User: Fold these one by one.
Assistant:
Number 1:
Amino acid sequence: MSIATGQATVMAGITRKRRGILSRIIAHRTDYLYVLPALIVMLVVIAFPIYYTIELSFFRTPPNLQMRDKIWTGFSNYSTVLNSSVFHEVTIQTIIWTLASTFFAFLLGLGAALALHREFVGRGLLRALLLIPYVISAVAASYVWKWLYHSDFGVIGALAVQLGITSEPINFLDNRQTVLASLIVVNIWKEFSFAMVMLMAGLQTVPDQLHRAAQVDGANTWDRFWHVTFPHLKGVSMVTILLLMVANFNSFIIPFVMTGGGPADASHIWITHIYQLAFGRQQWGVASAYAVILFIVMMAFGYFYVKALTRGDEDRAGG
Amino acid sequence: MAALTSASLMSSTVYAQSVDLSQWSPEYIRSIAGTETFDTAGHCAEVVPLDYTGRLTYWWTGPTEASPKIEHDINNAFWEAWSKTYPNIETDAQNIDYNQLLDRLRTTLLGNAGPMVIRLQILGGVEFASKGYFQQLKPEDIGYPTADFWPGAMKSVTWDGATYGVPTNNETMALIWNADIFKRAGLDPENPPATWDDVVTYSKKIHDELGISGYGLVARQNAGNTPFRFMPQLWAFGGGALDEAEATPTYAESELDNEGAVAALQAAYDMYVRDKSVPTSALTNTQNENQAPFIAGQLAMMIAHPSEYAKMVDLAGLATGADKEIADTVVANMRYGLIPEGPARRAVVFGGSNMHFVNPEYVEGGFDEMAAKAFACFWNSPEWSTKLAWTGSNPGNLAGFKTEWMKERLDTIKFLDVTTSMLPSGIPFPVIPEATEIMNIIVPDMLQNALTERMTVEEAAADAAAKVDSLLGGGL
C-alpha cells in the first residue's frame, strides 16, 4: 500500500469518526436539548467566574475593578503569592486544618457508625442526637463554641479549673499556639456525623453471611472488621474522605466567625485569607492568584474524587 | 497641638450657623437645647413634594441585638413617620451588621447591584467616592446649609475638593468606669484615670486586688471597634497612623513607628502581657463582648458611647436573683469621664456616619433621585437627626441641638454631656481611600503582633508603618 493510499485511509477514518460524533449528536439532539438549560446556567455561574478570576490573576487590579484601568503584570501576582511569608504560613495552617479535621472526623465517624450498626435499646435516639452537630447552622455553632472556649468566662476553662486540671482558665482562642487546634476540634465536632451517616450506609452493604462464616472460622472482632467489614467500606471511605477534604479545604465559617483569622493570623486558612485579601484589602489580582492556585488543588481533589467514585461503583458491582 | 486640632474642627465657614461652635461646652449645649421648633414634613415638602411617587433602596447599620430597646423603638417610629410622610415612595431598607457593611457594599458594587442610598461609618465614604461609586452630594442638595454640620464631619465626606455625602450623626466616646470596683480596689471611686499611664496603673491595681479585669481592651482583627479604642491612646502619646492629628494633615507618611506610637503600643502590651490586667479574650473581642463582664462586675473600665449606659440598664432589667443584685450595683456605680490624656494631647476618634448617594450605573434597578433626596432630607432633618442618634451619638445636623428632643436627651440620658463635650477633642480618621484598610486591618494587626509576642513592640510598630507606607505607594 502506498503512502498516499495509507493517508487516504487515515483521512477517511477521521472523517468517519467525525461523522460518527456528529451523527451521534444529531441522533441524541433531544437529550442535548434537555441538558442545554443546565449547561447554560453552569457556563454563566461557574465557567465565567472561573475565567474572570484567572484573567484577574494576571493583572494588577485597581480597587474599582474598572477593566480599563487594569495593568497587565503577567505572573507577578503568582510570584508575590509564592514569595510571601504569609502564603507559607497560611498554607501550612490549611494543610494542618484539612488533614487533622478530615482524619479525626473520619475516625470518629467510623467509630460511631460501627457502634450504631449494632442493635441496642435507644439506638434511634442516639443516632438522632449524633446528627445534631451536622444539621446545626455553622454560624450558630461557631458562636456557641466561641463562648464555650471564652478565655475568661468559658465553660470549658471553668470546668478544667474546677476539676483541678489547670490552675487558671485555658486560653484557647487568644493564643497563637492553641487557636488552630481549638478550631479543628469544633470542625471535627461539626463534621464527624457526616462521615458517620456515609459509613453507616456503607455498612448496610456488608453481607451478614460473610461475618457468620468468619465467626465460624474463629476470627475475632478485629479480624472480622479488618478482613470483612473494611474491604467493603473502601469505596465509601474514599468518597467520604475526599468529600471531607474538599469541605475542609473550603471551610470558611468556623475560623471567620470565631477568630476572624486571628490572633495575629494564626488561624487564617486559604479561604479566609483570600477573603481578607479580596474584600477587606481589595488586592483583587493577588487574591485571584491565590484562588487560581486553590482551584488547581481542588481540581486535583476532584479528579481523585471521581476516580474513587467510579472505583466505588466497581467495588459495589464486584469489579 | 490639641488646640490647633480643635481649631481645625471648629473653624467656621462663610455660612451662618444654627449654633456657635466656638462656645461649645456642656453648658452652652444645655442653653440652646429646646429653643427652636422644626417642621420636618413642611421643610422636606419644599425639597420633594410629599405626594411624590417613587422607589427607594437603602442600606445602613441600624439597631442590633446589642442595642438598647429605646433604639429599636425610635427606629420603628422613624419608618412609620417616613411612610406616613411620603406614602407613595416604596422603600426597601436593609439593616446590615457594622462589621459586614463595607465588605458587602464592595461586593455588590462590583456587580452593579448597590442600593440608591447608603449610610456608612465615617471612614468608609472616601474610599468609595475616590473610586467613582458615589455621586456628589452636599447638604444644600437636600435643603440644609453646610455650615450646620461639623467642619470635621464635612472633611470626612470631601474627596479631591468635591463633597460626596451628608453627615448623619457625630459622636465621641468617653471612659466608663465602675465606681464600686474602684472603691474595692482602693482607688478613688469618683476620680477616673487622668492619663493613659494611669489607666495602666489602675488596671493593674484592680486586677491585683480583686482578680478581675481592669481595662476592657479591644484588639480583634478586621473590626472597627479596635481602632476606635486604640487610636485615642496612640494619638494621646503623640503617634498617628499618618499625620491626621495635625491641624493641616498631609497624609504623606506613616507615624505608626514614631516614639509616641511605640509608647502607646507598649502601654497596651504592658496591660495584656506583663500585667495580665485586661481580658485575655481581648484579641477576639469587640466592644459587645465587654458588656457581659461589665454588667457582671468583672470589668472595671471601658471606652464606649452614652448608649452603653442604656444597654446596661436593659441588661440589669433582664437579670434575676443574685445576678440582678450585682447588675443593679453596676448600673448605680456607672460613671463617665473624659478619655485620658497622654503626653501629647487628649484625643478621641471623631466618629459618626455619613449618608451617600450611589452613582446610577452601580444601582440595581436604577436611581430615583427625588426619592433619594426626600429620604435624605427626612433622615437628616433636625428632628430625626437628633432622634436617630438618641443614645449612641449626636445629631449630624447641628440645628438638632436646638430641638426639644435634644433637651429631652440631656434630661434623660445620663452622661450625654460628657461625650458631647469630648467633640472638640475629636480627630477624624485620615480622609484617604486607604483609611479603612489602615484602621481596620493594619492597626489591629499591629496590636495583635505585639500582644501575641509574634513581634516585639518596636518590630510590630515598624512592620505596621512599613505596611502603611507600602500601601500609600501603591503596593500590597
Number 2:
Amino acid sequence: MNIIWEWANPRKFMAWTDRALPTIAVLAAIVFVGGLVWGFFFTPDDYRQGATIKIFYLHVPSAMMAINIWVMMLVTSLIWIVRRHHVSALAAKAAAPIGAIMTLIALFTGAIWGKPMWGTYWEWDPRLTSFLILLLFYIGYMALWEAIENPDTAADLTSVLCLVGSVFALLSRYAVNFWNQGLHQGASLSMDEKENVADVFWYPALMAIAGFVLLFITLVLLRTRTEIRQRRLQAIEMRERVQG
Amino acid sequence: MIRLLWRDLTLGVRAGGGFGLGLGFFLILVTLVPFGVGPNAENLAVIAPGILWIGALLACLLSLDRIFALDFEDGSLDLLATAPIPLEGVVAMKALAHWITTGLPLVVAAPALGFLLHLDGAAYRWLIITLLIGTPALSFIGAFGAALTVGLKRGGLLMSLLVLPLYIPTLIFGAEVVRRGADGFLVTTPLMMQAGISAGSVALLPFAAAAAIRIALR
C-alpha cells in the first residue's frame, strides 16, 4: 500500500514502472493471448449456441473492464482530490480512452453476438443502453480534459465530473431497467450460483479476464508514463521560453 | 440570498432571451415533430410523452450557459464568491432562478403543447406533475454542468455533451410516468424515483457546482 503514496513523486513512479513494466507487459501478453487461444480453439462448442459462444471470451472481459476502469478512475480521482497525488490524476486521464475503447469493444462484440442469438444487432435493452450511456460519460470526461488548458484545473474539474458522473451512471443503470425489459440473461459468472457456466468455459474465461486486466495495467502504466513525460516537456519548454 | 434571487429573476426577464427563449424553442420543437413523423394522430399520441420531455430537456439546456457565463465575464461572479453568503447558496439561488424562468413556464405551457400532439387525456395530470417534479432536477444538474465549463471559451457545446448524459435518468422516469399514466398503469414507483433524483440533485449538486466554480475562479 505504501508504494502508492510514494508514487506521488513522479520520479519514483517512473523508476518503478521502468523496472516493472517489461515483466508486466510480457505476462499480460502471455495470459491475454493464452486465454483467447484457449477459449477460441480448445473449448467445445456450446450445445445451444454453437461456435458463437467463442465471442464470450472477448465480450465478457471487455464489458467487465469497461465498468472497472470507470471505478478505477473514480478511486484515482478521489485520491487526487484528497491528497493532491499528481500521478493519480494523470493515471485517471490515461485510463479514460482505454475504458472508452473497452466499452466500444463490448458494444461491438455484443452486436456481433446478438445477431445470431437474438436476431438483431442492436436492441434497446437495459444493459446495452447503459453501456452506450457509459460510453457517453467517457467521451464527456475526455472532452473536458482536452478543453481545459491549466493541468491542475483540468484534473480538479474532471475529478468532480467523475464523482458526479459515477452517481448518475449508476442511476442510469437502474433507470433503464424500468424503461425497458431486456434480452440479456442474468449474471452467469457469480461465485455462489449453481447456474454457472460449465468448467470447460469457466477456466479459459477466467484466464481471458486476467489477460484483460493485465493488458489494462500495462496500457495504463505506459500511458501514465507518456503523460508524465509530456508534463516534463511542457515544463522544459516553459523554462526555455522564460529564459528567452 | 433572496435579493440575489430577485436580481437574477429581473435580469432573466429584462435582459431578454432567457425567459421567452426556452418557451419559444419548446413550441418550435413541438411544431416540428408532426412535420418529421407525419400528422397521424395515433402516432403522435404514442410519442407525445417522450417528445414533450425531450423538448423540456433541450429548452432547459439552451439557457444553461446564461446561469454563470455572463456573471463570469463581467466579474460579478468573483464578487459573489467573496460575498458573505456561502457559494453553495449562490449556486442554489441561481439554479432556482433558472428554474423559475425556464422550468416553470414549461410546466405551464406543456398541457397546451400536449394538446397539439394529441396526448392521451389521462396523461395530462401526470405530465404536469412529472414536469413540476423533474424540471428542478434539470436546472440543478444544468447548474453543475454550467459551473464545470464556466471558465472555458467555447463551453456551450462541451456543456451539452456533459449535461445530457446526466439528464438521462430524469428523462427516463419522467417519460415513463407519463406513458404509464396514459395507459392507465400504476405510476408510483417511477414517480418516487424521479422525486428522489430531484431531491438528491437539489440537495447535493450545489456543493459540487460550488466546488467547480471555486476551481475555475482560482
Number 3:
Amino acid sequence: MAVFDLPAWAGLAPALILAGTAIFLFLLDSLSRRSMSREILAGTATAGALASLGVAVWFTVAGVGAPGMENGHGVITLFDGGNAFVGDGLFVVDQLALFFMIIVAVVTALVAVASYDYMDGHAHQAEYYSLLVLAATGMSLMAAANSLVTIFIALELASLPSYALVSILKDNRGSVEGGLKYFLIGAVSSAIFLYGISLVYGATGVMQLDLIADELAGGDVDPYGGLLGLGILMLIGGFAFKTASVPFHFWAPEAYEGAPAPISAFLSSASKAAGFVIAFRVFTTAFPLEITGDVIGVDWTLAFIVLAIVTMTVGNFAAATQQNVKRMLAYSSIGHAGYALIGLAGLTADGGELVMGAAMMHLLVYGFMNTGAFLFVALAEYWGVGRTFEDYNGLARQAPLACVALAVFMFSLAGIPPFGGFWSKYFLFTGALEAGLLVVAAALVVNSALSLYYYSRLVKAVWIEDPVVDRDSLGQPTGLYAAIIFAAVMTVLLLPGFGPVVDVAIDAAAAII
Amino acid sequence: MMIEALIGVALLGALVTFLAPNRIAGKLAFAISLVPAALSLWMFTAFDGSGNALLDGELAFESQLEWIQLADYSISWFVGLDGISLPLVVLTTVLTSLAIMSSWTPIDERESQFYGLVLFIEANLIGVFTALDFFVWFIFWEAVLIPMYLLIGIWGGPRRKYAAIKFFVYTNVASLVMFGAFIALVFGLDVSSFALPEITDAMLNGGPDGFLGVDGTTLASVVFVAMFLGFAVKVPIVPFHTWLPDAHVEAPTPASVLLAGVLLKMGTYALLRFNFTMFPTEIIEPFVIPIATIAVISVIYGAMLALAQTDLKRIVAYSSVSSMGYVILGLIAFTQFGVGGATFQMVSHGLISGLMFMAVGVIYNATHTRMVTDMSGMADRMPVAVGILIAGAFGYMGLPLMSGFAAEYFIFFGAFGSDLLTYAPIFTALAMFGIVIVAGYLLFALQRAVFGPYHLETDYEVSRAPLHDVAPMFVLLGLIIALGVAPDLIFEMITDAVDPLLESATGGEL
C-alpha cells in the first residue's frame, strides 16, 4: 500500500501527529491570545485526532505491524541501539499498538468535537484543547511503549494533563475536588508502579520487555522470585489505577463526576484502553506465564481472575444504587474494566489470543458506546437539566434523536442485540468459556443481567417517564449532536461490520502472546 | 435478495418515519408498510417449497454471506424461507399494515416515534422468521424487545411502566437462559458454524459429544429443557404467562395486535424450529408427557382465567394463552397434522386475535371503557364494529368455514393419532374441552356487552367508528374466512415443509 518507503520513526506517526497538534495549539494560543476563536482551536484538535486516526487505520490496512512482513510493513521497532540494554527497542509499532492508537484517536476526535459546545464561554480554551491532545499523545505512546521506562514516561505524559483537565472548571468545587483526588491517588499509584519497576529491574537487571523475558528464561532470576513477584504485584496495582479497577477505583466516580463531561468520556474510554494495552503488552511480552510461574511460584493470571470478578461485581452493584446519572456511568465503567480484565485472566489457556482479542474488541466498542453515553451527559449538562435520573425524565419529548442515541448506548453497554456491545460481550463470554474460566463467564452473565437494570432505568427515564418540570425547548448544539450521533451510528454499524475487527484483534493478540 | 429487501425497506422506513413530522407519520408509515406487504405477497405466489430449512436442498429466496470468523466457528448472514416461515412472514407484513391503519385514531401523541417503532418491530419480526443462522436469528429475536418495551411503556395504559418492565425482564431472562443453553450445545457439537441446518444435521446424526464434563445425552436433554423454558415464556404457556395479560392490557391497540398476532408466534415458531425438529425423538421422548400436560393445562386454565375476567381486553388476552396451548399440543403430537395444524393455528390465531384486539380497541375508543359490566347494548350504537367483534368471537370458538375451525381440527386430528404421545386420545379429549369454555366465556361476554338495552353513562358521544378503523378488520375477516374455506391456501405448503422435518427427526418412521 505504501507508495514510498517511510523511515522507521514514521511508525509512531499517530502519536507524533497528536504531539505536533498539541504543540501547534500552544503556539496558536501564544501567537494571538485574544483573537483566537473556539472554532479554530476545536477544529485543530479534531483535525489532529482525525489525522492520527487516519494514519493508524492506513497503517493497519497496509499491514504495518503485521508479523512476518518485510519492507517496513512488518513490526517496527524504534531506538534499538543494538546493545544488550535496549534489546528490541524502546517503542514497538505492531498491530496491538495500532489497534489501541485507533481507539485513542477516535475517542479524542469525538471528545474534541463535543467540547466545542461544552466548553463554550470557558476561559482556558487553548489550554484545554492542548492538554486534551497532549494526554492523547501519552495514551498513544502507551500503546507503543516497549520498555518499562518508556511505559512509565508515557503513562505520566497521559496522567499529568488528565489531572489538570479534570479540575479545569476552577470555579466548580466538584471539579477541583475530583481533580485533587485523582491527582493524589494517581501520584501514589505512580509511586507504587515505579517501585514495582525498580523491583523488576532489581531482579532481572533490564527494563526492556523482551529482555526481561529472556532473563527469566535464562534462569538467573530464579533466586529473586519473591522480589520479582512483589514487583509484578505492584505493576498490577499501577494498571489497576489507570484502568479504574478494584481496589484502585476510588478516584474514578469522583473524578468522572467532577470533571467536565467530555473529559469523563475521554478518561473512561481512551485512558482506560491505554491502561489495558500496557497490561496486555507487559504481561504477555515480559512475563510469559510458563516461565514466570516457575520463578515466582504463582500463576499471575490468578490475580487477574480475582480482579476481574471483583471489579465487575463491585462496579455493577455500585452503579445499580446510584441516583446521579454521571456517577452511575462512572461505576458502570468500573464494571466494564472488570469485563476487559477477562482478557488478562484468560491468557493461560490455549485460546488465550481469543480472550485477549475479545477484550480488545470490547475496548473498541466501548470507545464508541461509553464515550457516547458520557457525551449525552455532556449534552444534558449543556442544557442544564440537572444530574439525577428524575431530572432526565421525559427528555425524549424534546430531543428524540439524541435520546435514540442514548438508548443505543445503554442497550449496547448492557450487551443487548442488535448493537456492537452484544458481540464484544459475547466474544468475552465464549472466550472465557474456551479458556475454562467458568466462574468468570458466569460472573459476566450475571453482571450483564444486573447491568440491564440500571441502563434501562436511564432509557425509561428519558423515554417513558413524564418530565417533572416544564422545560423550555432545548437547543441543538451542533458539535455535541454530531459527536453523539456519530458514536451511535458506529455502535450500530459495529454489529454488521465486526468481521474485520475480529480479524485484526485476534491477529494482534496472537502475534503478541 | 428479496428477504433483505423486505427487512431493508422496513428498517429504512422506520428511520424515515421516525424523522418525519408527527402530522404525516401515520399515513407515511402505512404507505411504507405496503411495500413489504406487497413484496411478501409476491413471494407467496412465487414460492417454491421444494427445499427445506433444516435439511438438504436450497430454500426459497435463500442467501448466505460470510460474516464473522472466530476461532473454529463461523457466523454468516443466512436467511431463507420454507413453507413454515413464509405464511408467518406474510402474516407479519399484512398485520403490520393493518395495525398501522388501526392506530390512526387512538395514537395522538409522538406519532412519528410510534410508527417508527412499529416499522422497526416489523423488520425484526421478518428477520426472526427468515433467519437460518443462530446469531442472525438471536439478534432479531432480542431486537424485538426494545421497541415493544417502548411501545408499551410510552403509549400504554395507566400501569404501563410496570407492564413494560415486566415484559422486558421476563422475556429477556428467558432469552438469556435459552441463549446460554444453545451456546453450550454448539460447543458440545462437532460443527464449525452456527447455521441451523448444520446444527440440525449434527444433532440428528450423533448429537453432542459433551461439554465441560457433561456427557452428550445429558447435555442435549438439559439444553432441550432450557430452550423449551426460554421459548415457553415467549409463547407464553402456564405458568409463565403472567406477563402477557399485563402487557396486553396496558399496550396500545396496535401494539396488542402485533403482540398477540405475531410476537407470540415467535415462541411457538422457535419451538418448532429448535426444540421439535432439531432434537432427535430419543431426546424429546421423556418430555412428551410433561409438555402435553402443560399444553392441556394452558388450554383449560387460560380459558378459565378468561372466563373470570370482566375487562374485554383481558378476556381476549387470556384467550391467547389457551390458543397457544393448542399449538403446543399440536407440536408435541409430532404428526403431519399436528405440527402442520400448529403452524396453521399460528397464522389463524394471528388473524383472529388481531381482529379481536382491533374490535375491542375501536369500542374502547368510542366508550372509554373496556369493562364488560359497564357496557350493554353496544350493538345498537356501533353495529359494524360489534358485528366484527362477534364474527371474530365465532372464529375463536372454531366455527366451521373460519380459520379457527380448520386449525383446531387439524391439531386435534393430529394429536389424536400421535405415536409419540402416550394416551394421546385422553390429552386430546381434555384439550377439546377447552373449546366449550372458550365458547362459554365469549358468548357470556358478548351477551353482557353487546346485547340488551343501551345504558352506558359517559360524557362522550358513542357513535359509529370511522372507515379507517373498520377497514383493517374487514381485511382480517376476509382472510379468516378465506383460510377457513380453503385451508389449502397455506396448509399444503406448510405440510410440504413439515413432512421432511418429521421424517428426519423420527428417522423415517413418520
